[in-house]
Specification:
The chain is α+β, with helices and mostly antiparallel strands. It has two helices and six strands; from the N terminus they run ββββαββα. It has two domains: 61 residues, no CATH class; 34 residues, no CATH class. 28% of the residues lie in helices and 26% in strands. It starts with a strand and ends in a 12-residue tail after the last helix.
Length: 97
């Protein structure tokens, strides 16, 4: 089972953006690496510019985790409404923007 580098090979960073931009120049020094199992679960890999550091932030989005989080957030909102108004309503699952 081999390891793969995410930089330049996943959606969001197809061109392989610089992860370091500083006085000494630019380079790709910060890497995302995953095995074959992880590779299939990774939806995207992005290099995001930041002003806080000469190293860019890398973001890795895992498939399915965002939808799980959004569903849990909706459940929590429903519970708050039920608690606030002392009633239970039937809510339909709707997409969150």
């Amino acid at each position: 089972m081999g390891w793969k580098i995410l930089n330049g090979n996943k959606e969001g960073d197809e061109e392989g953006k610089w992860t370091y931009v500083g006085a000494r120049g630019e380079s790709i020094i910060d890497h995302g690496i995953g095995n074959e199992e992880a590779w299939e679960e990774i939806q995207s890999f992005k290099v995001v510019e930041t002003l806080e550091s000469d190293h860019m932030r890398v973001e890795i989005k895992i498939k399915g985790k965002e939808q799980e989080y959004e569903k849990q957030e909706r459940r929590n909102e429903r519970k708050e409404i039920e608690k606030k108004y002392g009633m239970k309503r039937e809510f339909k699952d709707t997409e969150v923007d």
